[in-house]
């Protein structure tokens, strides 16, 4: 699960906001092409503050905007947990994918 997906997702049960905790991640930036443009689009959609808050909650630090952008588009949560801030429902992240459907 990557940052843009976290920003987009909401709880499938109640549409509430989700809180993601990360146990294991990998940095997998596939391409630096159009990275600045993609970032501008994301900031226009969600605001820089929301993006930075999400990184802070995950304890992912960055030194400058370049690092921030590389984390936003390159870092993948492989194992973790998602909890709804509204109804408290929990969903696991396994093998990089959020599991919103009960197995
Ligand atoms: Zn919920």
From TrEMBL:
InterPro entries: Trm112-like (IPR005651). Pfam families: Trm112p. This is Uncharacterized protein. Gene3D superfamilies: 2.20.25.10. It comes from Hexamita inflata.
């Amino acid at each position: 699960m990557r940052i843009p997906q976290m920003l987009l997702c909401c709880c499938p049960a109640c549409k509430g906001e989700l809180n993601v905790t990360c146990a294991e991640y990998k940095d997998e930036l596939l391409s630096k092409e159009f990275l600045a443009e993609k970032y501008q689009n994301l900031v226009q959609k969600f605001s820089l503050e929301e993006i930075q808050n999400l990184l802070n909650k995950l304890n992912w630090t960055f030194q400058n905007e370049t690092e921030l952008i590389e984390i936003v588009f390159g870092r993948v949560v492989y194992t973790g947990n998602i909890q709804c801030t509204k109804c408290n429902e929990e969903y696991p992240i396994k093998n990089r994918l959020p599991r919103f459907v009960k197995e």
